[in-house]
Every structure is written in structure tokens, then in C-alpha cells.
Amino acid sequence: MAMKNALITGITGQDGSYLAELLLEKGYKVYGLVRRKSKLDFNNAEHLKGKVEFIFGDMTDSASLLRAMEIAKPDEIYNLAAQSFVTTSWETPLSTADINAIGVTKLLEAVRLVKPETRVYQASTSEMFGKVQAVPQNETTPFYPRSPYGVSKLYGHWIIKNYRESYGMFACSGILFNHESERRGAEFVTRKITISVAKIKAGLQECVELGNLNASRDWGHSADYVRAMWLMLQQDVADDYVVASGETHTVRDFVTLAFRAAGMELEFHGEGEKEYATLQGTDRVLVKVNPKFFRPAEVDLLIGDASKAKKVLGWEPKISYADLVKRMVESDMKLLAEGKI
Ligand code: NDP
Ligand code: GDR
């Protein structure tokens, strides 16, 4: 069989790097869209230099997307590029929409003009469920986004569906629930916690300040979730799928497990803005709530029902929540010891 070409936008991000590894393993020729920054930094894709062909471009720049299509002539596109941090979406709501919403239409138009048979994967999100209308959430649960990020992604989701129905394009959305990894950005709560645990254990930090400890998320590992993206584009028919672990845990639970993985047991005291945790049997404070990290609107509870992905795609996650926490803590302790944090 002829080698397939794939174009990944967002290749320097967490998911982009795992997906590139998966596609290379499967024998794809992989192209990755990267944007120019003041420092030439490939972030999570540094190790892919020489294996992937990088194309400079930007989701807000139609010309660069057309150029990327012309160069890569992809059989499959994975649109992972986004301003993906929910908190920042209140600070930069317009550029978030430019990249995450209008950028998807720009990409779809470039596909239509250059190679309409290209199969397109869109990175939709459980943030579209926001103020949840049902528990657990599946493909038929009504959306109610709670941030400029969630709203921008909802546009991307619907424009994909519309191009599929209007032009018969093979365009799919994966409604992915939170997935983390050793490569997660440091501002997301899981990685913020695991880096802090490593530093506290090494005596380099006193405690970690967090926002809403009651928020519940359905957390999986990125390496499992990129497999679902690929599976969606191998089907006979384009469709949308929820990808989730089916378990939900609070931020409080994640921080407890993370400290435990480093041999430290927490004891919680107080509640709301006054909540904090000490090292068991001591008065040493290791976790503090700081309202600075509360959001203008919160998504309280996410738990996904991935039965459709399991049935149609045969997808199953391999890495459990407990393993995820352990892997992230161990990786950050190692990175810290090597001077890489
Ligand atoms: P990351 O934030 O790690 O990666 C985002 C990527 O998008 C980076 O490569 C970034 O490049 C790139 N990017 C940002 N803006 C632009 C732009 N204007 N033009 C081109 N590229 C740009 O996200 P994840 O890997 O975690 O997530 C991948 C996708 O999946 C995102 O769309 C995210 O919204 C979505 N998603 C993520 C979930 C998760 O839990 N991780 C869950 C559901 C959906 P640079 O390195 O230059 O910043
Ligand atoms: P989320 O991820 O907003 O779910 O979006 P994040 O890890 O930022 O927040 C998860 C929950 O933790 C609470 N929280 C904190 N969050 C951060 N970042 N920092 C803190 O100190 C803190 N304390 C508590 C938050 O309030 C929230 O409830 C991620 C992104 O990857 C999106 O791109 C993706 O679409 C969704 O997951 C699914």
C-alpha cells in the first residue's frame, strides 16, 4: 500500500507530539504546522526533527494553510492547533476565537480548494458541555459552554459537521475529555501539581497554591487518546465520538494521589477559600487555596460515556488514572533531578 501523508496542526503541543509518533510508527509521511516564535522552539516536537517535515504557518493565516496543503497534499489532517488554556481565553477572547473557531473554517476552505478528499480530524472538547445538562455526557448531550474557549470550540465542532453535510467531506470531531501526560503544559492543573510535588519533595518549593479543588474531571493519558483520533479517520463513514475514561475525580483527589506518589500523605482542613492541606501528622502546609486561580465561570463536573468509541472504533484506554498520576510525578522528579525543569 502507498505511504499516506498526514498533516498535523499543533504538532508542538502535547497531543501533536504523541500523534506524530503514532503515525510515524504506522509508516506515514508526517508534516507538522509550526508557528514562528521569537525563540525557535519546537516544544514537545524537538525530538521529531529529521523525522517530520515542518511547515511554518499559523491558523489565523489562510495563505499559510493553503501553502501547507499544497506542500503536504495530505490524505489525513489532524487539526490540533488551538489556544487551549481555558483561563487565558477570558484574557484573549478574540484571538482564541480567531485560532480555535475561524481557523477551522480557514483550514476546511484550504482543504476544499487543494484536496477535498482529505480526511479531517477536529479536536473538539468536553468543555463544550460546560454547565452539564446530563451525567455522564455522550454524543447526544446538549452543549452549554462556560468560557470563550468552550464557545470557540463549539463553533469548530459545528463547522466540521456542516462541511461534512454540505460538501460530503470526510470530517470528524473527537469530543475528547481531559487528557494529560508527562508532556502536559505546565499551567494545566495536573502538571502544575506534579511539577510542584517534585519541587516540594526536593525542598525547592514550600507549597502549591490552587483554585477550585472541588472541580471534577474525567482524566486520561494523551497517548491513549491520540489512538482514538487516528481510528476515527480509518472508518468508512465520518462521525463524531466522545473519548473519555468514564471515571471522574476531583482536583483534591489528584493532588492527594500526586503527593502520595512522592511518599507524602496529605490532611485537608477548612473549606472553600480557606481550605488547605498539611503533611499528615505535622503543621507543614503543602497545599493552599488561592482565589486568584478561580475562574469567572466554572465547569464543575465532567464524566464521559465513550461507549460509541468503544463499540465502533474498538477503542479502549490502556493507562489508568492511578498510573497517569504516578507516571507524571515520577517523570517530573526525574526531569527535576536532570535539571530539565
Ligand atoms: P497544547 O496547548 O499542548 O498544544 C496546542 C498546539 O497548538 C501547540 O502546538 C501550539 O503551538 C499550537 N497553536 C496554538 N496557536 C496556534 C496558531 N495560531 N497557529 C498554529 N498553531 C497554533 O494542546 P493539547 O495538545 O493538549 O491539545 C490539542 C488539541 O486538543 C487542542 O486543540 C485542544 O484545544 C484540544 N483538546 C485538548 C484536550 C486535553 O485535555 N489536552 C481535551 C480536548 C480537546 P505552540 O507550541 O507554538 O504554542
Ligand atoms: P481544563 O484544564 O480547564 O479542564 O481544560 P485545567 O487543567 O486548566 O483545569 C482543570 C480544572 O482544575 C481547576 N483548577 C485549576 N486549574 C488550573 N489550570 N490551575 C489551578 O491552579 C487550578 N486549581 C483548580 C480548574 O478550575 C478546572 O476546573 C483542559 C484543556 O486541555 C482544554 O484545552 C481541554 O479542552 C479540556 O481540558 C478538556
Could you explain the architecture of this structure?
With 341 residues, the chain is of the alpha/beta class. The protein folds into 2 domains: 5-181 and 220-247 and 301-318, Rossmann fold (3-Layer(aba) Sandwich), CATH 3.40.50.720; 189-215 and 250-298 and 326-337, UDP-galactose 4-epimerase, domain 1, CATH 3.90.25.10. The protein has 10 helices and 15 strands. Strands 3-2-1-4-5-6-11 form a 7-stranded parallel sheet, sandwiched between helices. A 4-stranded mixed sheet has the order 8-15-14-13. β13 (266-269) and β14 form a beta hairpin. α1 (14-25) crosses α7, α4 packs parallel to α5 and α6 (189-201) packs across α10. The longest helix has 22 residues, at 93-114. The radius of gyration is 20 Å and the shape is globular. The chain starts with a strand and ends with a helix.
What is the helix fraction of residues, given as a range?
25-40%
Q: Which small-molecule ligands are present, each listed once?
A: NADPH dihydro-nicotinamide-adenine-dinucleotide phosphate, guanosine-5'-diphosphate-rhamnose
Category from helices, strands and their pairing:
alpha/beta
The number of domains: 2
CATH superfamily of the largest domain: NAD(P)-binding Rossmann-like Domain
Average pLDDT rating: 97
The Cα radius of gyration reads: 20 Å
Tell me the series of helices and strands, N- to C-terminal. Answer: EHEEHEHHEHEEHEEEHEEHEEEHH
In CATH, the architecture of the largest domain is: 3-Layer(aba) Sandwich
Number of strands: 15
- What profile does the largest beta sheet have? 7 strands, parallel
**Stretches with pLDDT under 50, minimum 5 residues:** none
CATH secondary-structure class of the largest domain: Alpha Beta
Helical segment tally? 10
